[in-house]
Amino acid sequence: MTDPAASATRTPYEPHFTITPEGELTLDDHEAVTAMLSRAFPDYSHWYQGARSWAGMQPELRVVARSGDVVVAHAGIRRQFVTVGETDLLVGCVGMVAVSPILQGTGLGTQLLRLVDAALDHLGVPFGALEAGEDVQPFYRKHGWEPLEGVTGHYNDFTADGASTLVSTDDGWLVRPCRSERPAWPAGDLHWNGQLV
Predict the structure, then answer these.
(1) What is the pTM of this model?
(2) Residue 141, H or E segment
């Protein structure tokens, strides 16, 4: 799936977006994504090595922008059930959202989130959900993501050697209404029952 707004007159190095199922990525694709993610997330670069292009749960779909053969932006999405209060809810878990450091501030992130919206719609989920640091939350809010105020989120975090710990955080949780309106999001804390993308 390609960006429906892409122009036929695109220059060779103008970023070209695709939405690709995980099973269609080649080894070269994984290596290119890994290289960009290790630059975008230097604190987690020990996870992104070789062709390991994920740090938590492996995505179902990838939104990828390339300039020539170089990956310059990326987001991963996976459908999963989470527990919110007493309700099991299907969401599109969004993670590994990144723009190559040298292209940040160019509008590429806005294009990326527009394609994330298209991917969430394609997956038919009522909501997208993600966890974001305080420094990038305004960016997501600007693009329609809404904070879950007063909600504690719980998820499993794994170390590089495979040990699991339960992590609980009280802020940084955002949702993107897709096929449901925001008031349909249940009340209560958020349990991922696994890893984040």
Answers:
(1) 0.90
(2) helix 137-142
